[in-house]
Amino acid sequence: MVNSCLNVIVKNDDQEITLLESDITSNKDLKKNNFKTTNVNILLNRVRLDKKRTFKKRIVFSFFLVASITSVIVYFII
Q1: How would residue 40 be classed by pLDDT, with cut points 50, 70 and 90?
Q2: Quick one: average pLDDT of 58-68?
């Protein structure tokens, strides 16, 4: 009987601690979210620049691939 009462008291204390911790973490998350929303434009611009770079790399790679295949075909024909 005494053991079960102690278990209930310990569980209640644990629940209160977890509630307090969750409140603290939610407040920290709110503060972090405010900082993250200001950087969205920077991230979007970075993604756009990365897309442009990869597109340019693909164009250059395809040009060299076509040029090398053409030169090999010309070499074997002559």
Answers
A1: confident
A2: 98
Secondary structure of the chain in the HEC alphabet? CHHHHHHHHHHHHHHHHHHHHHHHHHHHHHHHHHHHHHCHHHHHHHHHHHHHHHHHHHHHHHHHHHHHHHHHHHHHHC
Specify the long-range contacts of residues 42-49, CB closer than 8 Å, at least 24 apart: none
The pTM score is: 0.46
* Token pair of 63 as six digits: 């040009």
More confident residue, 36 or 58: 58
Q: Hey, what are 52's tokens?
A: 């442009």
